[in-house]
Design goal:
The complex is a heterotrimer of chains A (about 260), B (about 325) and C (about 325).
Chain A lengths: L7 E11 L5 E11 L3 E5 L6 H7 L11 E8 L4 E2 L7 H7 E4 L10 H11 L5 H14 L3 H4 L12 H13 L5 E5 L7 H14 L4 E5 L3 H7 L2 E6 L2 E7 H6 L4 H7 L5
Parallel strand pairs in A: 3-8, 3-9, 6-7, 7-8
Antiparallel strand pairs in A: 1-2, 1-4, 4-5, 9-10
Helix pairs in contact in A: 3-4, 3-6, 4-6, 6-7
Chain B lengths: L2 H57 L5 H5 L12 H32 L4 H14 L3 H15 L6 H25 L3 H9 L4 H30 L2 H5 L33 H9 L5 H34 L3
Chain C lengths: L1 H64 L2 H6 L15 H32 L2 H16 L2 H19 L8 H25 L3 H9 L4 H12 L1 H17 L2 H6 L17 H10 L7 H34 L1
Helix pairs in contact in C: 1-12, 3-6, 3-9, 4-6, 5-6, 6-9, 7-8, 9-12, 11-12
Classes of the chains: A alpha/beta (about 260), B mainly alpha (about 325), C mainly alpha (about 325).
Chain lengths: ~260, ~325, ~325
C-alpha cells in the first residue's frame, strides 16, 4: 500500500503528550513522515492533530509543565528530537512552521523573510538579499512585492501575509515544514494559491499539514492520517483513505456522518 | 545504503555540529541578559534596602520612647515626634473621611450608572489626568482655595482636604477595578428577584468588591501619609510644640471640632524640618523619623498587596 | 352595567394606588442616590477646574507686573530680591537637567527590567518581584531626599571631589531609581500585550529568548514603551522633595548636573517655607511657576496617554 521506495524523513514512535494541567492530548501516536511528500492530519477539532504537529518543532516547550513521552526520530541522522539533551532551538532550525493565522513581525517585508537568517547570525548582506529573493520567489510572492520590500508587512493582504510567513519559513532551507491549518483564515482564492504553493514546495522539502478541510487534504496530500481523541485511528496513502478506508470511524468522518 | 544517502547523512551531521555550536553561543546571551535583567530589578530593591539601613543606622540613637512623647525642641537630643505623629493621625482622619466616601461614590457612579457619552468621558479624562498631576500642584490649589479662598488657614482641615483630593483618583481607580471584576450574571440575578439598582449596588456590587476597594484605600492612605510637598506649600512648615484640642471632651456634647482649625505638623514635615537644618545633630532626628515613616508605609503597602493576593486567590468567579 | 364596570375599575385603581405611591417613592430615592453619586464623580472635574482657575487667577496678578517676554527670556529668577528678575528659564533648566539625569538612569534600567519581567522571568519570579517593586513606589519621597543628600552625594564626592553638597546629579540619580518601577511596570504591560502568536512565530524560526525579546517583542511594543518614558518624564518634572532637599535652592541657568540649581518644584517649596504675604508678587510667583509646571506635566501626560492608546488599539 505504501510505496516502499520513498525515503523516511521522520517518524513518531508511541508518542504521548500531556498538557501542564495533566490532560493527555496524544495517546501512543506512531506515524511515518516520508521525504518530499505531503502528509495531512485530519480529524474533528480537539482530536489532537495540532498538538501532534506542534510536537515536531517542540512548540510546547514554550509553556511550562507540558510533557512528552516517546520519540520523534529524524532521518537520516536518527536524532530523537524529543530527547532532553536536544535543544528545541536546534529542532526549530531544521523544522520550520507556518501558523493558522498569518503572524508577520512588525517589520518590513524584507526583514520578515530575513529573520531566520538574522537569528542564525548571517551578516553578509549579499547572501541575505539573495536568500530573501529566493524565498519570496519560492513562496510566489516575489512579483507582488519586489518593488516594495521595505514596506511594513502588516500592509499586505491576508493571503499575501500567509505567503510571506511561508517565505520566512522557507528562507532558512528547512528539512521539514509544518503547516497548522494554514488556510483557515483565508478566502478561497488565497487558499488555492497556498495549496498550489505547497504542491510546488514538496520537491524541496517534506510537509506535514493539519487541516480541517477534507477536500484540501484530498487535493494536496500524498498521505493522510485520521486522528480522533488523541489517537491515530488510520494512516495510509490519501487515495486509499478517501476511497477505501479500513475503519468505520474514518469513513463516517470523511463522508460527513460525524465531526 | 547508497553512497548518495551516506553523503547527505554526513553533511547533515556536519551541519548539526556547527548549528549546535552556534546555539550554544546564542544561548549564552540569554543567560547574560537574564542576569543583567535581574540585577536591574534588584537595583531598585537594593537601593530601598540601603536607604532603610542608612536611616536606621543614622537614626538609631533616637529610637526611644521619649522620641515619641517629646515635642520638637531647639536641642536635637530632646526633640521628639509627639506633635508630628498626632498631627499625622488627625490629618489622615480627615483625608480618610473625604477621600473614601467620595472616591467610592465616584467609582460606583462611573462603573454602574454613568451613561456612555461625552459627560462620562469628561469625568473619566479628568480622573486619569488628576492621577498624573504633581502633588505640589495640589498644594498650590489648597493654598489658593482652602487657606485663603475659603479662609480655612494652615489647619488640619486644610491639610486633610488637600491630601483627600490627592488620594481621590487612587480610590476611584481601585474602586472601579474592584467593581469590574464582578460578573454581570451576579447583577442580573439580583435584578431578576426584583431589586432596584441601588439595592443591587449596595447589597451586591459594593459588598463583593469591598476587599479590592480596601486595598486601594490602604495604598492611597499610605501615599498620603508620606506626602510632604503639598503640606509645605500650604505653609505648614512651622514650629509646633503643642497638641491640637482633643476631639473628645469630658463634658457634653463630648465631641468638639476645634482641632480641625488647629495648627499642626506631620511626620514627613517634621523630618524635612530637621533635615533642612545645618546642625547635623538634627539629621539624626530626621533619619529616625524617615525610618519610622518607611516602616509605616511599607506595613500599609504590604498589607494591601497581601490582601489583594488573597482576594485574587479566593476569587470564585 | 356601565356603572358597575366603572365602579369595578375605580376599586382596582384604589387598590393599586398605594403600590404606585411606593413605586414613586422608590424611584425618587433611586434618582436622589444617583444624583449624589454623580456629584461625587463630578468632584474630579471640579478639582481640575479649580486647579486651572487658581493657577490662572494668581498668575494673572503676576503677569500684570511681569511681561511674558521677561518671563520667558530673562536668564535670572530672583523675585524675592531687591533687584528682582523674573525669568523662568533657570528653574526650567534645573527641572530639565534633574529630569534628564533621572531618565538616563531609569530608562535603561527600567526597560531592561521590563524585558526581563515580561520575557525571561518565570511566573513565580514575577509574582515575587512585582509586589516588591510596588513597595518601592510606596516609599515617601522625603526619605529619598535624605538618601540623596546624606548618602549618595557623599558617595559621589568620593568620585568627583569638586562636587558641591547640593547638586543635580545626586538628586537626579535618586529620582531615577524612584522612577524605575514605574517605567518597568508600564513597559512590561506593553510587552505582555504583544500577542503570543508573534513570539511563537519567532521561536518557530529557531530564535532564542533574547533574540525574540529584542528583535520581535520590543519592536512590537515600542510605542507602549515610549509612552512609559513620556509618562516617566512627567513624574520626574513634577517630583519635589528629592530635588528640594538635595539639588540646591539657587535658581541657576545651567545644564551641568554637577552644579546645584533649583527646580520649579524646589522654588515653590522654598517660597512656601518662608513667610510671604498673601497677594505679594513673591506669593504670586509660585503660582506662575506652578502654572508652567502644570502645563509641562499635562503636556507630557497627554502625549503619553495618546501614544499608549494608539498602542492599545494596535493589538
Amino acid at each position: 500500500m505504501i510505496n516502499a521506495t520513498t525515503a523516511l524523513k521522520a517518524e513518531s514512535r508511541d508518542l504521548n503528550f500531556f498538557y501542564s494541567n495533566g490532560n493527555q492530548a496524544l495517546k501512543s501516536v506512531s506515524m511515518p513522515l516520508y521525504e518530499n511528500k505531503i502528509t495531512a492530519l485530519i480529524g474533528p477539532s480537539g482530536c489532537g492533530k495540532s498538538t501532534f504537529l506542534r510536537c515536531f518543532n517542540r512548540m510546547h516547550d514554550l509553556y511550562p509543565g507540558n510533557k512528552y513521552e516517546g520519540q520523534i526520530v529524524m532521518h537520516p541522522d536518527n536524532t530523537n528530537i524529543l530527547e532532553a539533551g536536544v535543544d528545541p532551538i536546534e529542532v526549530r532550525m531544521r523544522i520550520s512552521m507556518v501558523f493558522q493565522k498569518p503572524n508577520p513581525f512588525p517589520k518590513s517585508i524584507f526583514e520578515n523573510v530575513a529573520y531566520g537568517l538574522r537569528v542564525r547570525g548571517e551578516k553578509n548582506k549579499r547572501t541575505v538579499a539573495d536568500k530573501v529573493e529566493e524565498a519570496l520567489k519560492g513562496a510566489a510572492l516575489w512579483n507582488e512585492v519586489k518593488d516594495r520590500q521595505q514596506d511594513l508587512a502588516f500592509n499586505l493582504s491576508g493571503g499575501q501575509q500567509q505567503r510571506l510567513c511561508i517565505a520566512r519559513a522557507l528562507a532558512t532551507d528547512p528539512e521539514i515544514m509544518l503547516f497548522d491549518e494554514p488556510t483557515s483564515a483565508l478566502d478561497p482564492i488565497a487558499t488555492a494559491n497556498i495549496e498550489e504553493l505547497m504542491s510546488e514546495l514538496k520537491s524541496k522539502l517534506t510537509i506535514l499539514v493539519v487541516t480541517h478541510n477534507m477536500q484540501q487534504a484530498a487535493r494536496v496530500s500524498d498521505y493522510t492520517a485520521y486522528m480522533y481523541l488523541g489517537e491515530m485511528m488510520e494512516y495510509g496513502d490519501t487515495d486509499t483513505i478517501f476511497t477505501r478506508p479500513t475503519r468505520k470511524e474514518t469513513e463516517d468522518y470523511i463522508t460527513g456522518k460525524f465531526g | 545504503m547508497t553512497t548518495e544517502t551516506l553523503k547527505t547523512k554526513a553533511s547533515v551531521l556536519e551541519n548539526l555540529v556547527a548549528v549546535r555550536a552556534m546555539i550554544r553561543r546564542h544561548k549564552r546571551n540569554d543567560v547574560i541578559f537574564a542576569a543583567i535583567g535581574l540585577i536591574a530589578l534588584m537595583l531598585g530593591l537594593l537601593t530601598l534596602l540601603t536607604l532603610f539601613l542608612d536611616l536606621v543606622m543614622d537614626g538609631y540613637p533616637r529610637f526611644t520612647l521619649e522620641f515619641f512623647s517629646n515635642f520638637p525642641s531647639r536641642r536635637a537630643a530632646n526633640a521628639g515626634l509627639l506633635s508630628a505623629w498626632v498631627g499625622s493621625l488627625l490629618v489622615m482622619t480627615v483625608t480618610f473621611l473625604t477621600a473614601v466616601p467620595m472616591g467610592v461614590a465616584a467609582g460606583l457612579y462611573l462603573e454602574e450608572y454613568a451613561p456612555k457619552n461625552w459627560f462620562s468621558d469628561l469625568i473619566e479624562i479628568n480622573v486619569s489626568n488628576l492621577a498624573g498631576v504633581p502633588s505640589i500642584i495640589y498644594g498650590l490649589l489648597a493654598l489658593g482655595l482652602f487657606v485663603y479662598g475659603l479662609g480655612l488657614g494652615e489647619s488640619i482641615l486644610t491639610a486633610g482636604l488637600t491630601l483627600g483630593l490627592l488620594t481621590l483618583p487612587v480610590v476611584i481607580v481601585s474602586t472601579r477595578e474592584a467593581i469590574r471584576g464582578i460578573p454581570v450574571a451576579i447583577r442580573e440575578a439580583a435584578y431578576a428577584v426584583g431589586a432596584t439598582k441601588w439595592q443591587v449596588v449596595k447589597d451586591h456590587v459594593v459588598k463583593y468588591s469591598q476587599g479590592g476597594i480596601l486595598t486601594g484605600v490602604i495604598i492611597g492612605m499610605s501615599r498620603a501619609i508620606g506626602e510632604t510637598a503639598p503640606i509645605i506649600t500650604i505653609g505648614a512648615l512651622t514650629f509646633i510644640a503643642f497638641l491640637p484640642p482633643t476631639p473628645i471632651t469630658e463634658v457634653a456634647p463630648f465631641i468638639n471640632f476645634e482641632w480641625l482649625s488647629s495648627g499642626f505638623t506631620v511626620l514627613p514635615i517634621q523630618m524635612f524640618n530637621w533635615l533642612s537644618r545645618p546642625d547635623h545633630a538634627f539629621h539624626t532626628n530626621a533619619a529616625a523619623t524617615g525610618a519610622i515613616i518607611i516602616v509605616v508605609t511599607l506595613l500599609m503597602n504590604g498589607t494591601a498587596i497581601y490582601l489583594r493576593y488573597q482576594i485574587r486567590k479566593n476569587i470564585k468567579w | 352595567m356601565n356603572t358597575a364596570t366603572n365602579m369595578q375599575n375605580q376599586s382596582t385603581a384604589l387598590s393599586i394606588s398605594p403600590r404606585l405611591a411606593k413605586n414613586v417613592r422608590r424611584n425618587i430615592k433611586e434618582r436622589v442616590i444617583e444624583l449624589i453619586l454623580m456629584l461625587a464623580a463630578l468632584s474630579a472635574v471640579f478639582t481640575t477646574f479649580a486647579i486651572v482657575a487658581i493657577l490662572l487667577y494668581e498668575s494673572l496678578g503676576f503677569f500684570k507686573v511681569v511681561s511674558l517676554v521677561e518671563f520667558f527670556t530673562s536668564t535670572e529668577w530672583t523675585p524675592l530680591f531687591e533687584d528682582a528678575h523674573y525669568g523662568i528659564m533657570p528653574l526650567v533648566s534645573g527641572t530639565l537637567t534633574t529630569s534628564a539625569v533621572a531618565l538616563a538612569v531609569a530608562v535603561p534600567v527600567g526597560t531592561i527590567g521590563a524585558i526581563y519581567l515580561s520575557e525571561f522571568a518565570s511566573h513565580k519570579t514575577r509574582e515575587i518581584v512585582k509586589p516588591m517593586l510596588e513597595l518601592l513606589v510606596g516609599v515617601p519621597t522625603i526619605a529619598f531626599g535624605y538618601f540623596a543628600l546624606l548618602f549618595v552625594t557623599p558617595l559621589l564626592q568620593k568620585v568627583f571631589p569638586e562636587l558641591p553638597g547640593f547638586n543635580m546629579l545626586s538628586a537626579g540619580i535618586v529620582m531615577g531609581v524612584m522612577i524605575v518601577p514605574y517605567i518597568a511596570s508600564v513597559a512590561e504591560d506593553a510587552m505582555r500585550a504583544v500577542p503570543m502568536s508573534m513570539r511563537e512565530g519567532s521561536y518557530a524560526m529557531g530564535a532564542t529568548r533574547f533574540q525574540t525579546a529584542i528583535r520581535v517583542v520590543t519592536p512590537a511594543a515600542v510605542s507602549g514603551i515610549v509612552a512609559a518614558y513620556i509618562l516617566a518624564i512627567s513624574r520626574a518634572v513634577g517630583e519635589t522633595m528629592v530635588v528640594a532637599v538635595a539639588a540646591g535652592q539657587q535658581p541657576t541657568l545651567t545644564f551641568n548636573p554637577m552644579d546645584g540649581a533649583a527646580t520649579i518644584t524646589a522654588y515653590i517649596v522654598q517660597v512656601a517655607m518662608g513667610d510671604l504675604p498673601h497677594g505679594s508678587i513673591g506669593y504670586q510667583s509660585i503660582f506662575a511657576a506652578g502654572l508652567v509646571l502644570f502645563a509641562l506635566t499635562l503636556g507630557f501626560n497627554i502625549i503619553g496617554h495618546i501614544v499608549r492608546k494608539k498602542f492599545r488599539e494596535q493589538y
